[in-house]
């Protein structure tokens, strides 16, 4: 091989390597740039962009605006990370039955569209009772309908139901028969309770097509804690709560102290990095 041929081969290999690196970086950047930010709570005023409404406030003596929905920070690898925490009321306060917090989506999910929503959650502690997801009602409708304002719904609670069934603290989805725990396909069993203090990544792929076209359903994927070291699909075809077949317009959170005589507990749920993207996308937004 002549020195000229060697130089040409080296040059070709170098260009191929650079092109491969460029393609990889471009693909990674593309995955991140397509996501639409709902909120990551890094802006000091971000909590002010959420509407808070305590629509069934039975605290006695009456406490105005008892819910806690605020931006906080934690130290991660020497840097500050900001997140949003929701509690129905301060510890020891009971009677706030509907602590709603909601915000308009940056992009409406039209009927017929499929979007993936990404959310990180972290249980402050149990006992608690939380739900979050997406609504197709406006502010007035959300406040009038509370839980029935939800369509795709995810639930975190260890409360005992009125029929005596005890929830475990596993992440739950909505079904036609009520709620169901997510499922660990590796063990073949229901998922374990969420681990307080651990951040979980949750992807929910929302199909807003009409029911006749197989829509008004959502699939759920999760990663986090000791149970889900790798991303895993944990529920297929969970059902919209009301199936109104309307455009999805708001992200909604709700929590509840429980009744005064049988309170559930005021453990909080932390939220961070809320994003949405058109289609089915199981990458992370960053």
TrEMBL record:
Keywords: Signal. This is Alginate lyase 2 domain-containing protein. It comes from the Bacteria. Residues 1-32 form the signal peptide. It comes from Aliiglaciecola lipolytica E3.
């Amino acid at each position: 091989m002549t020195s000229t041929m060697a130089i040409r081969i080296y040059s070709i290999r170098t260009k191929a390597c650079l092109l491969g690196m460029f393609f990889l970086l471009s693909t990674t950047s593309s995955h991140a740039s397509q996501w639409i930010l709902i909120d990551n709570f890094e802006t000091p005023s971000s909590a002010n962009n959420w509407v808070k409404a305590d629509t069934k406030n039975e605290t006695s003596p009456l406490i105005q605006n008892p819910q806690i929905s605020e931006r906080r920070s934690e130290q991660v690898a020497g840097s500050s990370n900001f997140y949003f925490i929701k509690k129905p009321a301060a510890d020891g306060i009971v009677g706030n039955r509907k602590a709603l917090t909601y915000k308009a989506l940056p992009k409406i999910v039209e009927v017929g569209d499929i979007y993936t929503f990404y959310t990180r959650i972290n249980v402050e502690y149990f006992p608690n009772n939380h739900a979050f997801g997406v609504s197709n009602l406006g502010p007035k409708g959300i406040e009038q309908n509370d839980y029935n304002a939800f369509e795709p719904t995810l639930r975190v609670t260890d409360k005992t139901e009125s029929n005596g069934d005890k929830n475990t603290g596993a992440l739950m989805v909505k079904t036609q028969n009520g709620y169901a725990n997510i499922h660990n396909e590796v063990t073949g069993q229901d998922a374990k309770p969420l681990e307080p203090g651990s951040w979980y990544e949750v992807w929910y792929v929302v199909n807003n097509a009409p029911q006749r076209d197989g829509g008004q359903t959502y699939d759920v994927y999760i990663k986090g804690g000791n149970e889900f070291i790798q991303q895993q699909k944990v529920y297929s075809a969970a059902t919209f709560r009301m199936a109104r077949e309307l455009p999805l317009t708001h992200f909604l959170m709700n929590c509840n102290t429980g009744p005064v005589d049988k309170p559930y507990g005021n453990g909080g749920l932390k939220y961070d990095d809320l994003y949405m993207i058109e289609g089915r996308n199981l990458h992370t937004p960053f």
